[in-house]
Amino acid sequence: MKKQSFIHGVVFLLIMVISCSYGQYTSWEYNKKVNNIDFAKIRYGINNTDTSVIIGFLKNKTVIQGYPCGADWVQFNKDWKLTLFRLDDKTIINNFGFPKNSWIRQNNDKLICAFPNDTVIQGYLCRGSGGPKGVQTSFYPNGNLESFFTKENVKIGEINCKGGVINNIIFYDNGLLKECTLSEDQKVKGISYKKGTRINIDLNGNITKQK
Which of 101, 159, 161, 197 has the lowest tally of Cβ within 10 angstroms? Predict the structure, then answer.
């Protein structure tokens, strides 16, 4: 579980690399204007003769689909929906103000962000990354925090949760704690659990799984 959490947290830019699994890429095309967007370079992922992903490097900072994108890497799905980009200015998305230089990944109905610095979100200090390879923080469509990593241990309700880049903390979309790693030996509803135990909690506060 810890290994999985670590991979989830620190390999943000590899999302772009993993796109290679969609198929082969076309050769880079340089200084191209496509869909009214000026690219320094652009190429397409092809899977069974169909475009599966589009990756480019913007020539200039550009507003794309309402998002102020920095002159940096961008990624689109085959329908030209923007899926990965770096914000060039503070921007409100799903009721939350993301700071400039945040890397944003739009993954179906969820939003994943690598913040440029440690950022307080809904009362919790979420680790920043300093770049696209950094720690991920994810959000539900309603803007509520879904998953984050923090540098310090944190108490959420009656649960003492462990921080660090291999211990993500997960919430339900209503803000209740769903999953974390215990930072100390603890009793929950009269049952003792050891420090380092990874627990899942149901909506009634009962521990349903542990690892």
Answer: 197
